[in-house]
Automatic annotation (TrEMBL):
Its cofactor is pyridoxal 5'-phosphate. Keywords: Pyridoxal phosphate. It comes from the Eukaryota. Coiled coil: none annotated. This is Glutamate-1-semialdehyde 2,1-aminomutase. The lineage of its organism: Eukaryota, Fungi, Dikarya, Ascomycota, Pezizomycotina. It comes from Fusarium globosum.
Length: 556
């Protein structure tokens, strides 16, 4: 409301009021404003951004503002100094004129703001923020989603039939929940290089790359040759082999914290065994994990812990919040398990300061620091631990290190891994029929030679260009309030949508990209492999720009 006279006004239940304008990835309502021409104008209102993790949008205010946090929590970054600040209920955030701030993280955040400005509320406010109002955006997304989903159904009759057949014998029609989506998942028949082909005969540029595991691309000829030779010598031999020694030596040379290591069948198993080793080594029970962390099907921590999570004594901390983690860690903890970049959590990189603080806390308390590098070891020749110069006590890897076959490994300091020695005092057992299967051992050794420093640098550069291009397209489409952004590092990224229509926008984006012959994960994951080129990145960016332009056009 704008007061033309000096009179008292009260607005009740401010937090319950609808937010009618859009800006900064959220919604706001101006409640009070000085009259136009006031020499010291103020505008006061309530702002509720969408939940954000890994935000990168820089906001440069033309006027000074203070935000009082009334609900939720947030993490802010001052771009000029690089410093980060957390703010929760009862805190005030001062944003002076000319500053450049980034809202890095927001969870259930509601603020009450006071801004040195005077503006007329109503349609003019929408014009000022330069965004699309929510009703226009909702209508546009519904139209676009309807079109691309209808085309998906009509062009994939074989996939639809195969899914119906699968659902008769498999709950959900598959054995990997991540692959399911409505109305039915696309069924793939083959893959070559960075392309996959559906059962309905259409070829797609594959930016899923088997959820980061297919780093070498599909059907790599050198892997195929190794597999053929392996088949000729026997498949299940039931004993140890020289190949597992070779692979162990190669990995120990790559991962600095691998003094000794053991193999298993997946990243899930690797993380489970690493924690088991840490518990036995320290004779303690507590394990520190982080919100939105994912360490396999039995160790996932979103807004709520997965019902399948193993019954460890888990304590949940906030990712990239150094002070919160330091407050929790004491000498009762057996292990600290962290991803140097959260993968399923949205491709959110950890800061070096955060990882170093965990390293220092583990050293101080005697806890075992475990880096889950199942995904992140693709980003640097020696893993992100070497990139940051912060080294854990144990590391887990998986995915692409098996050359396309099931694979996991866990390892660390010799004295910790000693608990697995059959003649040692702990005598912790660890077996698995396929832990050292000859396909994974031989293909894994070849993968170590194929994943070179140059190849890693090449696809990291391509990934950076793709991520920067997506963010530039998002800002161009809606300058004042971008609703699409990408986070990540190097060859892995995640596309995010902000605001109340985030889910519908994500679904529309997924089907739109399929319609353009580009396969990305339903949750927005994009992972490059060594077969991708600059041309594939340009093709993807062209499709992203078309997606955003389609929404803008349908909003008119």
């Amino acid at each position: 409301m704008s007061e033309e006279s000096a009179s008292l006004a009260i607005v009740r239940d401010v937090d319950a009021m609808p937010k009618i304008f859009t800006a900064m990835g959220g919604r706001f309502t101006d409640l009070f404003s000085s009259k136009v021409g006031d020499p010291s104008p103020l505008v006061v209102g309530s702002w509720a951004p969408a939940d954000i993790q890994g935000g990168t949008n820089v906001v440069a205010l033309e006027t000074s503002e203070i935000k009082f946090v009334t609900q939720g929590r947030s993490l802010w970054k001052d771009e000029s100094t690089g410093k980060t600040f957390s703010a929760g209920v009862g805190d005030a955030i001062w944003i002076p004129q000319g500053s450049r701030s980034i809202l890095v993280e927001a969870r259930d955040l509601v603020t009450f703001y006071v801004q040195a400005d005077a503006r007329v509320v109503g349609q003019k406010a929408i014009d000022q923020v330069g965004g699309i109002n929510e009703l226009q955006l909702k209508a546009a997304v519904e139209k676009l989603l309807g079109r691309v989903k209808e085309r998906f159904i009509s062009s994939n009759p074989k996939s639809q039939k195969l899914h119906q057949d699968a659902a008769a014998v498999l709950p959900g029609g598959n054995t990997r929940s991540v692959l399911y989506h409505e109305p039915f998942p696309m069924v793939l028949s083959s893959g070559m290089g960075c392309y996959v082909t559906s059962e309905d005969g259409r070829q797609y540029v594959d930016f899923v790359s088997e959820y980061t595991a297919c780093m070498l691309g599909h059907s790599h000829p050198e892997i195929a040759e190794v597999v053929q030779r392996t088949m000729e010598r026997g498949i299940n031999l039931g004993g140890t082999s020289k190949e597992e020694v070779t692979l162990a030596q190669l990995l120990a040379q790559r991962i600095p914290s691998f003094e000794k290591l053991r193999f298993c069948n997946s990243g899930t198993e690797a993380n489970t065994m690493a924690l088991t080793v840490a518990l036995n080594y320290t004779k303690r029970k507590k394990i520190l994990v982080f919100e939105n962390g994912y360490h396999g099907g039995f160790l996932g921590f979103g807004k709520t812990t997965l019902p399948t999570t193993l019954p460890f004594d888990l304590v949940l901390a906030r990712y990239n919040d150094t002070s919160h983690a330091q407050e929790l860690i004491d000498s009762s903890f057996a292990a600290i398990l962290v991803e140097p970049l959260q993968s399923v959590g949205g491709m959110i990189p950890a800061t070096r300061d955060f990882l170093q603080a965990l390293r220092d806390a583990a050293t101080r308390t005697g806890a075992v620091l475990v880096f889950d590098e199942v995904v992140t070891s693709r980003l640097h020749y020696n893993g992100l631990q070497s990139f940051h110069g912060v080294y854990p006590d144990m590391t887990t890897i998986g995915k692409f290190w098996g050359g396309g076959f099931s694979f996991g490994a866990f390892g660390g300091r010799g004295e910790i891994m000693e608990v697995l020695e059959p003649n040692g005092s702990a005598k912790l057992g660890h077996s698995g029929t396929f832990n050292n299967n000859v396909f994974s051992m031989n293909a894994g050794a070849k993968a170590c030679h194929l994943i070179t420093k140059d190849k890693i640098a090449e696809i990291n550069a391509l990934g950076d260009r793709l991520r920067e291009g997506i963010n530039a397209a998002g800002r161009h489409a809606c300058p004042a309030s971008p609703f699409m952004r990408a986070t990540g590092m190097g060859s892995v990224l995640n596309v995010h949508f902000d605001g109340p229509l985030a889910s519908d926008l994500g679904e529309a984006f997924f089907f739109f990209m399929l319609d353009r012959g580009i396969y990305v994960a339903r949750r927005g994951l994009i992972a490059l492999n060594i077969m991708h080129t600059e041309a594939h990145v340009k093709q993807a960016l062209h499709a992203v720009k078309d997606f955003l332009e389609s929404i803008i056009e349908l909003s008119d």
